[in-house]
């Protein structure tokens, strides 16, 4: 269907406004157990950023210290590696959308608890519905498990070692989507051999982008 320039601009403004509204609700999410930790430490919620019309959305676990201090996702060591992996397939951060399941930093970089995931997940789903990506790439075990359950995929007990680099098809309110599980970039810091795996999976990913 033909969409004029002014219609396209209106759609972009509309998406940006919807995302701003979701982000405002997260900022005021006093019911979250991570809210007081954020306020006490002068941290910021990390909503996510990038191209709001991106074909691909990367979803990590939760912000770390540097992310909570800056308000931007994946700006620390794992983020540098994510930038390199994007660059290896000719993409920049500005062309994709990057966010996390949980939008506030858990103390001591511990994994987010199920109760925390459940509090933030509805916001992530709204975010996905606004951005409407064709490909969702969960980064690591926790993002994978959350996304598989949310999209009713019959692999929710599968490990990332079994599913990374696979294209899993699902349907959403806005059409078909491919779930493309990836190792979390930080996994490379514990197991160097995963770097090669990630590079290879990004190559597979690049072939799926229209
Ligand atoms: N790890 C994540 O999962 N998310 C970030 O934003 C940074 C590190």
Structure write-up:
Strands 1-3-2-4-6-5 form a six-stranded mixed sheet. The model has no long low-confidence stretch (mean pLDDT 95). It has a single domain, classed as 3-Layer(aba) Sandwich (Uracil-DNA Glycosylase, subunit E). The protein has helices at 5-27, 35-40, 65-70, 77-88, 114-131, 141-150, 160-163, 194-208; strands spanning 49-50, 56-60, 97-100, 135-138, 168-172, 175-179. The longest helix is centred in the first third of the chain and has 23 residues, at 5-27. It is 45% helix and 12% strand. The protein is globular. It is of the alpha/beta class. The chain is built from eight helices and six strands. It binds uracil. Uracil (URA) binds next to helix 4. Residues 60-64, 67, 73-74, 76, 78-79, 100 line the site of uracil.
Q: Report the mean per-residue pLDDT as an integer.
A: 95
Task: Classify the beta-strand content into a percent band.
Answer: 5-15%
Catalogue the ligands.
Answer: uracil
Using the coordinates above, name the CATH class.
Alpha Beta
**What CATH architecture do you see?**
3-Layer(aba) Sandwich
Radius of gyration from the alpha-carbon trace, in angstroms: 17 Å
Give the count of helical stretches: 8
How many discrete domains? 1
- Unreliable spans are none
Q: Tell me the CATH topology.
A: Uracil-DNA Glycosylase, subunit E
The secondary structure category is: alpha/beta
Oligomer: single chain
CATH-wise, what's the superfamily?
Answer: Uracil-DNA glycosylase-like domain
The separation of the N and C termini measures: 18 Å
């Amino acid at each position: 269907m033909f969409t004029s320039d002014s219609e396209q601009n209106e759609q972009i403004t509309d998406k940006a406004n919807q995302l701003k509204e979701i982000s405002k609700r997260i900022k005021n999410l006093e019911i979250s157990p991570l809210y007081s930790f954020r306020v006490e430490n002068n941290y910021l919620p990390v909503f996510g950023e990038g191209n709001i019309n991106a074909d691909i959305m990367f979803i990590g676990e939760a912000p770390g210290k540097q992310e909570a201090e800056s308000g931007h996702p994946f700006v620390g060591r794992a983020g540098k590696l994510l930038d390199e992996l994007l660059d290896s397939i000719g993409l920049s951060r500005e062309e994709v959308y990057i966010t996390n399941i949980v939008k506030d930093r858990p103390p001591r970089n511990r994994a987010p608890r199920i109760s925390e995931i459940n509090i933030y997940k509805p916001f992530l789903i709204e975010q996905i519905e606004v951005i409407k990506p064709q490909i969702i790439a969960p980064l690591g075990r926790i993002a994978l498990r959350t996304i598989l359950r949310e999209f009713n995929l019959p692999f929710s007990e599968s490990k990332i070692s079994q599913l990374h680099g696979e294209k899993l098809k699902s349907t959403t309110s806005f059409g078909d989507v491919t779930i493309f599980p990836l190792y979390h970039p930080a996994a490379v810091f514990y197991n160097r051999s995963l770097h090669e795996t990630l590079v290879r999976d990004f190559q597979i990913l690049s072939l799926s982008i229209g």
